[in-house]
Amino acid sequence: MNKPVKLVHGIGVNDAEQPISEGGKVCKAYTLWSGMLLRCTNVWWLRHPTYNGVTCSENFKSYTYFCKWRDKQTGGNEKDKDGTSWQLDKDLLVRGNKLYSEDTCCFIPKRINLLLIKRDKLRGNCLIGACYNNINNTFISQCNNGTGKQTYLGSFKTAQEAFQAYKTFKESLIKEVANEYKEMLDSRVYEALMNYEVNEND
What we know:
Elements: E1 21-22, E2 25-26, H1 28-38, H2 42-47, E3 55-56, H3 63-72, E4 87-89, E5 99-100, E6 106-108, H4 110-116, H5 120-123, E7 130-133, E8 138-144, E9 150-156, H6 159-180, H7 187-194
Parallel strand pairs: 3-5
Antiparallel strand pairs: 1-2, 4-6, 7-8, 8-9
């Protein structure tokens, strides 16, 4: 009698013949795969509402398929100089995408991923890149530079002016960093970064 299959996060099937850990340490591929599955569950959505409705393709529910797909991708096994593995991204190639799949996902360096992350909670009701300063009734603009630090862009009379300063700076910075990694990036990723536009409703 066959044993019932135990699903990973209630979604995926660990159908790989190789062990998921080596020397007592969980394999990077398994950590990446199980983390992707977790982001497709209610458990994750409750803590991270922006992921609400995110799912994955039927193929990606198979650990074996995911590993084979990852090994074929540009950046799938890449690491930066500090040893940080490149990260799985689902919405650079398709803005607003909520499906992890072989057609929508790619791998990008951590620095680029940080540039693309939006801080909705910190922004509140302001336009992206603008933060209201109630001390002098102005709008401060600043932008994450991809290294964990914020670059101050100035103080402006209106939220629209603050947003424009942010938009100009961020689009230029994304292109600059994309060119730093150009020879290492998937051509689709490079093109998406060079054409990236910051919108008010981001």
